[in-house]
Specification:
The protein is 79% helix and 0% strand. The chain is mostly helical.
């Protein structure tokens, strides 16, 4: 039961993070938001590592892989947060859920892993679902093609999949929390260092209560606690079973975004979201059977 609660909390923290990101973006830039999240989340992870007494036994030959992961994850956060400036948290939650399918495609081209017939069917269904989401059901009106925010969020799904592929070997070789911390640390140093020379830090002191609370949630819960809970849950419950909890992430986003941000959740959003989840389910079901 404990592992299920941890996995559920991790998914809720990640799903609602899109809503809190929208709140904070009214006051700070994407880079500043990244830096502030790193400033809280990375030390939090370090404390957990010390508490669990995990060893930092990283071999020198793997340094380049960690730096590559840091470069990709930094780009990922920037692209996704920038995308959230121009689209809804609801759309973001549903579009991001297509990441497993993007991962399957990248694995096919980079790692030569087979997709299979069900994988192809799932990708097609999910793609149609995304088109329905972004176009809001009016596919003939090509204005949806210029939805910068939705496209950036979709690109961020690709960068996350690329990050997963690029760090696959080191994730299997070292403890997951060690890998996560060691990749986020250089990203944090670069981002916070950039902020020191470009941002007016006095504005952070004068932030209203709402964005401050949202920042604390994004830093300590979404980036810190969620990573810890997820790793603990996967270790006890298994990666395959834990993956099903990710289906709840867009639901968590929607449940908070609709009442709190007053975002619309119409018929086509519901149908498009179900198509995305259905496509992912069809593809992953085949993969797990293998």
């Amino acid at each position: 039961m404990r592992e299920r609660i941890l996995l559920l909390l991790a998914v809720i923290f990640w799903g609602t993070s899109f809503v809190f990101t929208k709140i904070v973006l009214d006051y700070v830039t994407p880079i500043e938001l990244m830096g502030l999240r790193f400033l809280m989340g990375v030390p939090f992870l370090y404390v957990i590592i010390l508490k669990k007494k995990l060893p930092f036994n990283i071999e020198k030959k793997d340094y380049k892989k960690f730096l590559l992961g840091a470069a990709i994850i930094t780009s990922h956060f920037f692209i996704q947060i920038t995308g959230l400036k121009y689209t809804s948290a609801t759309n973001t939650g549903w579009i991001i859920s297509v990441t497993p399918l993007v991962l399957a495609v990248l694995s096919y081209f980079i790692l030569k892993e087979k997709i299979g017939r069900n994988g192809v069917i799932g990708i097609i269904i999910a793609t149609l679902g995304i088109i329905l989401l972004v176009s809001k059901g009016d596919i003939t009106n090509l204005d949806w093609l210029s939805s910068v925010g939705d496209w950036l969020v979709l690109i961020s799904a690709h960068t996350w999949a690329l990050y997963t592929v690029a760090t696959r070997d080191i994730s299997r070789k070292y403890r997951p929390l060690i890998v996560t911390f060691s990749i986020l640390l250089p990203s944090a140093i670069i981002t916070i260092g950039y902020m020191l020379f470009t941002s007016d830090w006095t504005k952070f002191v004068n932030l209203p209560t709402e964005p401050v609370v949202a920042l604390l949630i994004l830093g300590f819960l979404s980036m810190g606690a969620a990573q810890w809970f997820w790793q603990e849950g996967v270790a006890q419950f298994g990666a395959a079973k834990a993956g099903f909890f990710l289906y709840l992430e867009p639901l968590a986003t929607t449940c908070l975004a609709v009442p709190y941000l007053h975002e619309q959740f119409g018929l086509f959003t519901a149908i498009g979201g179900l198509m995305v989840l259905g496509g992912v389910y069809i593809a992953e079901k085949k993969i797990q059977k293998k």
